[in-house]
Amino acid sequence: MARLIKRLLKAMQARRFAVLPLVSRATDSLFKQLSHRLLPSSCSFCLAPLLPPAGTLCYHCVAELPRLTTQCQWCAVALPKDALCGNCQQNPPSYRRCISAFHYQGPVDNIILRLKGNPYTTEIKQLCAILAQHIAATYQQAQPPCPQTIIPLPLHWLKMTKRGFNQSHIISNLLAADLRREHKVTLEIRSDICRRILKGQDQHLLSAKKRRTSIKNAFIAEAKDLKGLSVAIVDDVVTTGATATSAAKALLRAGAAQVDIWSIARTSWNNPTG
Fold it and tell me: What are the tens digits of pLDDT across the range 198-209?
């Protein structure tokens, strides 16, 4: 009976019409509160009962997530073993390293897509916790140390106005909280350093070559205290790396010493010339 009610609640939530974002978010919150009051906590994917301190995914579903294990040590594209991919060897990217935790595959891709439409997507918390573990382990084994400043990849103001929030800022907040609480790493989140000045086309509709062209010089960085800083750009997914490369170049031109990229997921596309 409990499982049936849970499915009915999810079906009702999925059928909501695309009205005003605030109404949509209020509906999400209402359904979450109702389900928590009427039903015991269960996994968002398989509906199995959750045991504390699990989040919204059970241990089995977390274990089945498509994690990146072996990858390019520069752009994080998946490789048979840890190494540098041929593209990075021939055309080193402008950023120092890219750290990603997952392949951009189901169900991670679905969680990220839902996050772009709903800032209350709860499963993103567990993805960020796993990425935070990966970030802490990477910098523990490598030099120079972890950047102390993170920059959510900015949206163009038109997209920001339409969406009402920046999903990269949500990820940045979750990462900073996890790294501080679990790994004793303190980070400053700066949204004032970098701006996107060109809207460009929807990147997922373009080829790798067109992505590089459409996103070139799309960002500008302006901050008196940026000079000499080691920073990390935070994004949800890295596809070709064109967007991350453009933002990294803007930060380096403005005086940043080093730029890293942190993302939840990485596609199998190779990075662009950096």
Answer: 876 555 555 555
Q: With respect to residue 271, please indicate whether it lies within any of the assigned structural domains.
A: no
163 assigned to some structural domain: yes
Q: Are 37 and 44 in contact (CB under 8 A)?
A: no
Select, from the ranges 27-36, 42-51, 92-101, the one with the highest average predicted confidence (pLDDT). Answer: 92-101
The angle, 0 to 180 degrees and rounded to 10, between the axes of the packed helices 124-141 and 167-183 is 60
Range of the domain at 160: 67-266
Compute φ and ψ for 47, nearest 5 degrees: 70, 15
**Location of structure tokens 């900073």:** 176
Residue of 187, 192, 190, 82 whose CA lies nearest to 138: 82
CA distance 274 to 129: 29
Token representation of residue 228: 């000499």
